[in-house]
């Protein structure tokens, strides 16, 4: 159950984003946050809609070039939903309030502004620093968010990758994962692969 303050904020954000607040009453806060985040990202990217913004993402871009190659997944859509559903009520409400703020005041939603430049220059440190310096959530909630959304999933995906790489079948894999699973020096899939004896090298081709 949302506080009256958060519900009022949600009503304002829904009006601006074109959603009907009453239609969202049956949704969990994390699901509404996801909808608002997509809308805010579309505005930041200059996309026509949330669907258009999603089509510009890495996953759909890679799938366009797959051809007849086999697709495997490190985690299912259901497991990702279960991760977000496991957030505490306090964290879900805090993230929802953030999502509302991003819709209502895009000037404050500047996280995406530098991403294309950092991406093209291969500046992993800039991504990591921005995340590590984020103080938009209280410390306890930020620790929960990081443990559930980053650390635990890093371990699960690294274990899945190791199993794939250690298969007896001849193989070469092209793998895409979310950026925050790559850039943190000590808490990433890359760090876990190194701990398991793999050589990991960053390639940059401007």
Main features:
206 residues, single chain, 10 helices, mainly alpha, globular
Structural features, described:
- With 206 residues, this protein is mainly alpha-helical.
- The chain contains 10 helices and no strands.
- The chain has helices at residues 4-17, 29-45, 50-55, 58-63, 77-85, 89-104, 115-121, 124-132, 139-165, 189-195.
- It is globular and about 55 Å long.
- The termini are far apart.
List the helices and strands and how they pair.
Layout: H1 4-17, H2 29-45, H3 50-55, H4 58-63, H5 77-85, H6 89-104, H7 115-121, H8 124-132, H9 139-165, H10 189-195
Helix pairs in contact: 1-6, 2-6, 9-10
Briefly characterize the structure:
By secondary structure, the protein is mostly helical.
What is the count of DSSP helices, taking H or I runs of 4+ residues? 10
- Derived from helix and strand composition plus strand pairing, the structural class reads mainly alpha
Major sheet description: none
Along the chain, the helix and strand elements come as: HHHHHHHHHH
Helix content: 55-70%
Poorly predicted runs are: none
**First-to-last CA distance:** 48 Å
Molecular shape: globular
């Amino acid at each position: 159950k949302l506080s009256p303050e958060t519900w009022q904020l949600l009503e304002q954000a829904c009006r601006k984003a074109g959603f009907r607040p009453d239609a969202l009453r049956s949704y969990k806060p994390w699901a509404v946050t996801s909808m608002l985040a997509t809308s805010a990202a579309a505005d930041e990217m200059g996309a026509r809609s949330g669907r258009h913004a999603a089509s510009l993402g890495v996953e759909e871009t890679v799938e366009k070039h797959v051809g007849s190659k086999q697709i495997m997944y490190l985690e299912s859509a259901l497991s990702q939903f279960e991760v977000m559903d496991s957030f505490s009520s306090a964290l879900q409400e805090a993230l929802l309030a953030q999502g509302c703020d991003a819709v209502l005041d895009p000037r404050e939603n500047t996280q995406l502004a530098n991403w294309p430049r950092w991406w093209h220059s291969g500046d992993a440190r800039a991504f990591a620093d921005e995340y590590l310096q984020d103080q938009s959530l209280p410390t306890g909630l930020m620790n929960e968010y990081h443990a559930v959304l980053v650390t635990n999933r890093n371990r699960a995906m690294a274990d899945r990758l190791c199993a794939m790489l250690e298969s007896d079948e001849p193989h070469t894999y092209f793998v895409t994962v979310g950026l925050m699973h790559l850039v943190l020096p000590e808490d990433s899939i890359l760090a876990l692969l190194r701990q398991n004896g793999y050589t990991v090298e960053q390639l940059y081709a401007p």
